[in-house]
Automatic annotation (TrEMBL):
One Gene Ontology MF term: mannosyl-3-phosphoglycerate phosphatase activity
Pfam families cross-referenced by the UniProt entry: Hydrolase_3 (PF08282)
InterPro entries registered for this protein in UniProt: HAD-like_sf, HAD-SF-IIB-MPGP, HAD-SF_hydro_IIB, HAD_sf
Domain of life: Bacteria
Metal-binding keyword on record: yes
Source taxonomy: Bacteria, Pseudomonadati, Pseudomonadota, Gammaproteobacteria, Enterobacterales
BP GO terms, sorted: mannosylglycerate biosynthetic process
Keywords, alphabetical: Hydrolase, Magnesium, Metal-binding
Keyword Thylakoid included in the entry's annotation: no
The protein, known as: Mannosyl-3-phosphoglycerate phosphatase-related protein
One GO term describing the cellular component: cytosol
Length: 274
């Protein structure tokens, strides 16, 4: 198991993981966030949220000098301290938001698929869907490389919709609350691998990576790290991982930030001393 004084790199989902599913609090995780900051361990937010949303959250979480991954891996935002990096300030994967919207609109018009995305509604409706305040909902609508959808049709039509998206170079992934449409091949796991590689290059040595997530859209992230914390989720979706070895995967019994804390308690020793 890793120690706090190892070269650790943490990747974490937000909703239902670091943030409580209902009230978005991270209080139970604050002790670990403080401890990780004291040991200069980067905590990389890895979320379906937009860069606009994460920027505000980073301030509150005191993680502002760390890159973050937004929109399920479509966007990697680099901090000012990475200003000399060739990708600064953004590394973007996949299709742009406007192109994604055009394809969704065309498929709905042709096949009468029953779904609504953030681009179809106003901030009040997004606030109702998410539980966010209207100002927060507007930040959630500032999309760059993905579109969250509420699906109202049946499972058969969902499969057809996914097939047509694939033909257009797009893919569909399941999040905690929404389906997300983005460029083919885009995932949290792809972004985690890229960013872990950049940390390794910049620091001159490998990092021990830990990932924490609760939803199906976190699976690629959890597969891409050395140690995976599968946080108990408020959903009935399966969370299978290819490598279920007990020294690599821990499944929590607690939800949200309580589970987040439980996972780090399991994997990280306080120091390298015996």
């Amino acid at each position: 198991m890793p120690y706090l004084d190892n070269s650790l790199l943490i990747f974490t989902d937000l909703d239902g993981s670091l943030l409580d599913h209902d009230d978005y609090s991270w209080k139970p995780a604050q002790g670990w966030l403080t401890r990780l900051a004291e040991h200069q361990v980067p905590v990389v937010i890895t979320t379906s949220k937009t860069a606009a949303e994460v920027t505000a959250l980073q301030q509150a979480l005191n993680l502002t000098d760390v890159p973050f991954i937004a929109e399920n891996g479509a966007v990697i935002a680099l901090p000012e301290s990475w200003g000399d990096h060739l990708a600064w300030p953004r590394k973007v994967f996949g299709a742009e938001y406007g192109e994604i919207r055009k394809i969704i609109d065309a498929l709905r018009l042709r096949y009468d698929f029953e779904c609504r995305g953030f681009g179809d509604v106003d901030a009040a409706q997004v606030a109702d869907w998410t539980g966010l305040q209207p100002d927060e909902a507007r930040l959630a609508m500032a999309r760059e490389g993905s579109e969250p959808l509420v699906w109202f049709g049946d499972e058969r039509d969902l499969k057809r919709f996914e097939g047509y998206l694939n033909q257009e170079g797009l893919m569909l992934t399941r999040g905690g609350r929404f389906w997300h449409v983005m460029g083919a091949g885009v995932s949290k796991g792809q972004a985690v691998q890229w960013l872990a590689g950049e940390y390794r290059r910049l620091r001159g040595h490998p990092m021990v990576t830990i990932g924490l997530g609760d939803g199906p859209n976190d699976l690629s992230m959890l597969e891409a790290v050395d140690h995976a914390v599968v946080i108990r989720g408020h959903h009935d979706q399966p969370m299978p991982l290819a490598n279920e070895q007990h020294d690599r995967v821990f499944r929590t019994t607690l939800y949200g930030p309580q589970g987040w804390k439980q996972g780090l308690d399991h994997f990280i020793h306080k120091s390298g001393q015996a």
